[in-house]
Amino acid sequence: MIRPDPDHPRPMGPAGTLTEPIESRSEPPPAPRASHRAGRRLWQRLRRSPIFAYLAIAGPGLIAANAGNDAAGIATYSSAGSQFVYRTLFFMVLVTIALVLVQEMAVRLGTYTGKGLAALIREQFSLRLTGLALFCVLLANTGLVVSEFAGIGAAFELVGVSRYLVVPVFAVLIWALVLFGSYRYAERIFLVFSLAFLAYPVAAVLGHPHWSEVGANLVLPHFVASRDFVLLGVALIGTTVSPYMQLYAAAGVVDRGAAPDDYRATRLDAISGAVFACLISITIIIATGATIGGQGPLDSAKQAAEALRPVAGPGAELLFAFGLLGASALAGAVVPLSSAYAISEAIGVERSVSRRFREAPLFLGLFTLQVILGAAIALTPVNLIKLLIGTQVLQGIVAPIVLTYILILANRRSLLGPAANGPLFRVTATIAVTAVAAMSLLLVGQTLLGFLGLG
User: What structural domains does the chain harbor?
Assistant: First the structure.
């Protein structure tokens, strides 16, 4: 007599006889419903689609570039639209080219060497100059973190929620995301934050711009011969091509474990991320140019959002606030991470989001300190406009140094071998880096003259 297994009982029929298991019966299983078959076919098509393939490789390049559209960036782009309508759009096309070149070189260095920029700079250049550059990066980034948490507070104040409530909450959430999650998990959360930027193309459409004028200004230069236009152009470069973005992009591909075989994917991520971020910047200019163009410069992203209300309606204001929140939350994590990566790489200690505090105390300690300082100062009555000006000056000092290092490193065949810059890329990248450096130094000089009352 066959006894039933007490751990895996089989169903009993009448009079205690064993019945045949379902899987051994001759009748076929019920056919899936038509809705299930359609859903399965849709999922299979999505998995084969280019969008799904891109999402599978999206990472540090997209995150770093999108972080540049932070609270300070939104204020700058909004001011460009408010002050000069669409006239800065052709300039943004040039800035996009520069950002693509710089981001591509940064991720290529990280992919082929397995080291972040700070580690490569320490190995290839003077330790004293490296220390000075990294000190400026840390100082400037701390100021930027303050502006990011201030942007989070401003986004919620647009809907009537006090910043004193939300800033501490978001500081804890951002801190916990990095300290208690792996790099892969943190990366996916950062990519979700990036979805908030889709609010700006919607806001641009709601603003009903003159698309013929938009197209003309994108294709042909419509520069204005004025000091304000030049200074705004410099500010656009400073907020779009920031050193922390390159530091994070290179360190991110290393933390992700990218190898030379992954270069095509990381390159696509870097280039598409830079283009996407600049397209978002352009739509911010279009949105504000269409609705409040000609009203003069703005002082904050909050003012830009409020200014959209009478023309585009409350929906545009909410979209603008949603985009500001996502941008500030993303940069609020990426900026302190870039500082922590850079300092830890330069010293040569463990650095990874996937490590625990006891395994990477300096890396995670620097990140924690910057988050605490940024959130705390954002809750004080500090003059944030002066703070942003000060951080822009520091970024202007650091940018030429970091970008020059990137260009020299990417040119070295002793470091990259066949992956080093080719002749055409070398010439193009040199022109772009030189132009960005010159404009950044112009901003520094003009700002210092302003402080002295000579500007």
Answer: 55-288+306-451 (1.20.1740.10)
